[in-house]
Design a protein that fits this description.
Helices cover 70% and strands 2% of the residues. By secondary structure, it is mainly alpha-helical. A two-stranded antiparallel sheet has the order 1-2. Strands 3-4 form a two-stranded antiparallel ribbon. A hairpin with a 7-residue loop joins strand 1 and strand 2. Helix 15 runs parallel beside helix 33, helix 19 runs antiparallel to helix 20 and helix 26 packs antiparallel against helix 32. The longest helix is centred in the last third of the chain and has 38 residues. The two termini are 27 Å apart. The relative contact order is 0.09.
């Protein structure tokens, strides 16, 4: 193991085990192994043949549908050969229904109903052996039970995750029928939204051939076809939730549905619990509100956000990942930090942050990045558990790191009516603090263990690396430009950025020393012809060749129109260049291995060497990106559809105000208790569940009580989001840590414990910014007393920063405090700063960390206790805040100076001994 000079990067020290075998040192996880691990954790099928083709085709169609919505809105035209073009105009409810139906169909294809390892399946499996022992193998009852078991297994079980069962096909048909009904009978749905589901047509009227069979059945004649589809649709969402997100979430959602129907049985006279009593609701009323409503329920705000924002950003991430950007960012992290003290772990933090911008998924981020970073951390001297903890902790932070963040950030846009650009500003400082805190801890661990950097052969210079992939930064820069500078909507920003990304990859695919002149010439020719068409006919060339035409436009307007379509011209130039030279080798482009594998696989099946054809690789990149985007989006869409049921029930039952009153009563008016209840509820509910689901459920129940305490609305939402993210690395579930342990081959529980300790600052920072909103750049409005409580704060501007009397005590001091606080927290957790820290010093560092980061947590607790004792104290909150931070700073400086002096003495003693 080669390292740099100890004075710069540290030395390997005693942990550089020279006796480890070569296989142990190079224990890297292959791409296939990483994909298999993700499938195993998420319980996805590994389909082959017709089923695999069906999944890809449906996934690509799903992405195409979403691209049409992003580009054209809900009204667009589909070009069809021979016949006239097909004009499509969708209502929001229809678009949402099609969106969810796509996800349901893919869920039933990708996720098995049962692998035979569930409680119900295991218990049913004992019936036949028990009958055999009691009655004998040849007994008629035993044989009938054995036949029933075989039929059940054929219909439901997929133990090897490799086949689609009849039950899956039945669920898919039901999902498709629901979408067709929304598309073809929307006028009936509109009438029923006014008059109720009982006014809809019965099943026998919709399908007359069923009249002889079902005409006399009371249930069929009593309820409408819309009621049947709605009830089945809700059940399908619950089943899809169980498959993709687990049984606990399905039970939680189902419990809310049961509560909506029978919550009226709760007595209003019961103390506390009586606040949960609701009016009696019928099943038609419940189904109508949960299935045929865009305000709440399955197709409510969460799915609307998924249709408008989330999917297109997931697709953008898929395109960016398939382009090779993921590996380039990982290599960039190692080029920047790999040779420093604890370099592999620091590179893991940077790489996970970069990848989080692409994926936004803790598990996928952990496995994809960890397949490369965890083996290198282990090689450098970190333990397997610590290596897995670093990766999972940093990867979970991808959901809170701008500019993309996770799906919950887009939901925050909708629920708080805040521009995404403001969400980015709001989330930036806490995210930087979190990654800085993990960085500090791995650095201190490297100091403690004497861990250096990676070998020189594992890294390249930063300049060289930028030369071979600088273009990967362009899409992210464009995204920030559209969101923050141009202030475009989230969906339009993502669409323009996605077009730019594909255009960029097209150009890079066609670029080489031999073709750069040709590529430039074709691009100039396309732009010139298009510009001339606008100047002389006022229309693009594509319209001109069909015989259309009109008056020309001024040259300035023509240039503006051409510039707005420049991405499409770049795509065309790249494709035409590749058509003329399909065998070129693009020296700058290194597409994701998945793309090359897919191209080679298709080439093998067609007996043609397509994997070396650059034009075919470009086409495979586009198609595979759409396929991967759909696969990634499926659990997210199911999550938001299921989670939308909970606010739907809260809305239709009128539970919201009562729940707020209950929580305020239970907290006793203490903001500290309310924050702790929210934090604990977020972590417990979030264990094993997507952050998106946790966020939706908790903001429905807890956001309003938090705001009632005077916490800014955006800070309250971000507080809930942070603790939902922490749940991914909190034992005993800790899904991200479990994924990392699979790569690191470490103990899952210990990996989770270490990951939580590394992310401890992520648990303290939310308390800091809800009590000191300046940390997230929020300021109370001048006329706050005259405004509703949800509208009393705004994001600061440059004028606020220039107002030093405000910005210094409210922003600068708290921000510096949290940065210093995470250093103190690192010394507390790791037990090392310049040298080892004893128990008393660790206690002092812990106290200084609390005082520097969230002094109001301490002061508010004291005032709450005094309030419970009947003592009222009136103090200047800002003065108390600054005083406590000052005490924390002094304590921190004293402890750091003492530790530095001890480290110097130890070093001088060693030098004297050596001399």
């Amino acid at each position: 193991m080669n390292t740099n000079d100890p004075s710069d990067s540290g030395s390997d020290g005693p942990n550089d085990d020279q006796d480890r075998t070569t296989d142990e040192l190079t224990e890297e996880v292959s791409h296939e192994e990483a994909e298999e691990l993700i499938d195993e954790i998420e319980r996805r099928r590994s389909l082959q043949g017709v089923a695999a083709v069906a999944v890809a085709a449906i996934g690509i169609l799903f992405s195409v549908f979403q691209l049409f919505l992003a580009a054209r809105g809900f009204s667009f035209t589909i070009w069809l050969p021979i016949v006239d073009n097909w004009g499509v105009s969708l209502q929001l409810l229809q678009a949402n229904a099609v969106h969810v139906s796509f996800a349901l169909v893919l869920t039933f294809l990708l996720f098995p109903a049962s692998m035979g390892d569930g409680i119900v399946t295991r218990n049913l499996g004992r019936i036949v052996p028990a009958a055999s022992r009691r009655l004998g193998d040849q007994n008629l009852v035993t044989r009938l039970l054995a036949r029933a078991r075989a039929t059940f297994r054929w219909a439901f079980l997929d133990p090897n995750r490799e086949r689609v069962t009849p039950f899956d096909l039945l669920c898919m048909v039901a999902s498709i029928l629901s979408a067709i009904y929304f598309l073809t009978e929307f006028s009936e749905i509109q009438n029923m939204r006014v008059f109720g589901l009982t006014f809809g047509r019965p099943v026998t009227e919709v399908y007359p051939f069923l009249q002889p069979v079902l005409g006399g059945v009371p249930f069929v004649s009593e309820y409408s076809y819309a009621m049947a589809l709605g009830g089945i649709g809700v059940l399908l969402v619950l089943e899809a939730t169980r498959r993709t997100l687990g049984l606990p979430l399905m039970i939680i959602v189902a419990t809310f549905i049961v509560y909506a129907r029978w919550g009226y049985l709760i007595s209003g006279e019961t103390p506390f619990i009586g606040l949960l009593a609701v009016n009696e609701l019928t099943w038609p009323s419940i189904v109508q509100n949960l299935w045929y409503n865009t305000e709440n329920g399955v197709f409510g705000i969460p799915v609307t956000v998924s249709v408008s924002f989330i999917y297109i950003f997931i697709l953008f991430g898929a395109f960016l990942e398939m382009s090779g950007a993921g590996q380039w960012f990982i290599d960039l992290a190692y080029a920047a930090t790999g040779d420093r003290k604890g370099g592999p772990a620091k590179a893991s933090i940077l790489a996970s942050g970069f990848m989080g911008t692409i994926s936004g998924s803790s598990i996928a981020n952990t496995v994809t990045t960890g397949a490369f970073t965890i083996p290198l951390m282990k090689r450098s001297g970190y333990s397997p558990e610590f290596s897995g903890a670093v990766e999972s902790s940093a990867s979970s932070g991808g959901q809170i790191l701008p500019p993309v963040m996770g799906a919950a950030a887009f939901l925050m846009v909708q629920y708080t009516a805040t521009p995404f650009a403001d969400i980015i500003i709001l989330a930036t400082i806490p995210a930087i603090v979190f990654f800085f805190g993990v960085w500090v801890m791995v650095h201190l661990k490297a100091v403690e263990e004497g861990i250096g950097g990676v070998a020189d052969i594992d890294t390249v210079s930063l300049g060289t690396h930028f030369k071979h992939g600088w273009f990967y930064l362009v899409p992210i820069g464009l995204l920030l430009y559209y969101l923050i500078i141009e202030r475009l909507s989230v969906s339009r920003s993502a669409w323009f950025t996605l077009v730019a990304l594909v255009a960029l990859i097209s150009l890079v695919s066609a670029y080489s020393e031999e073709t750069r002149g040709r590529l430039l010439g074709i691009f100039v020719a396309i732009v010139g012809v298009e510009l001339a068409s606008y100047v002389f006919a006022g229309i693009p060339v594509t319209a001109l060749v069909t015989g259309a035409g009109g008056a020309g436009v001024p040259i300035g307007e023509a240039i503006d129109r051409v510039i707005s379509r420049i991405g499409w011209y770049a795509m065309l130039a790249g494709v035409l260049t590749l058509v003329s030279r399909p065998d070129i080798d693009a020296p700058l482009l290194d597409l994701n291995l998945t793309v090359q594998t897919a191209a080679d696989s298709i080439g093998d099946r067609t007996s043609r060497n397509l994997g070396d054809c650059q034009l075919f690789r470009l086409g495979t990149f586009v198609v595979k990106s759409m396929d991967e985007g759909a696969r990634t989006a499926v659990p997210v869409v199911i999550a938001v559809a299921a989670a939308g049921i909970i606010p739907g029930v809260i809305s239709v039952s009128g539970l919201g105000p009562n729940l707020t009153s209950l929580l305020l009563a239970l907290s006793g008016g203490s903001i500290v208790i309310m924050l702790l209840v929210t934090a604990v509820a977020s972590i417990i509910l979030g264990m094993g569940m997507p952050t998106t689901v946790t966020y939706i459920i908790l903001i429905s129940m807890l956001a309003t009580p938090l705001v009632e305490f005077g916490i800014p609305l955006l800070a309250a939402h971000l507080f809930i989001l942070y603790f939902g993210v922490i749940a991914d690395i909190t034992p005993p579930v800790a899904v991200a840590a479990y994924a990392a342990s699979g790569v690191a081959k470490s103990d899952p529980f210990e990996t989770g414990v270490k990951a939580f300790s590394l992310s401890l600052n992520k648990a303290i920072v939310p308390f800091a910014f809800v009590l000191a909103p300046g940390i997230v750049l929020l300021r109370e409005k001048a006329n706050a007393d005259e405004l509703p409580i949800r509208e009393q704060y705004r994001v600061v501007g440059f004028s606020d920063l220039a107002e030093l009397s405000y910005s210094v005590p409210e922003i600068v001091v708290p921000v510096i405090g949290v940065f210093l606080g995470v250093i103190a927290l690192g010394a507390t957790v790791i037990g090392t700063l310049y040298t080892s820290v004893n128990r008393a010093e660790r206690t002092g560092f812990a106290l200084s960390s609390l005082l520097l980061m969230a002094p109001q947590l301490l002061s508010a607790s004291v005032f709450d206790l005094l309030g419970f004792a009947g003592v009222t104290v009136s103090v200047d909150a800002l003065l108390i805040d600054l005083t406590l931070r000052g005490i924390g700073f002094v304590l921190f400086v004293v402890l750091v100076a003492k530790n530095h002096r001890e480290a110097t003495n130890v070093h001088e003693t060693r030098q004297a001994t050596v001399g």
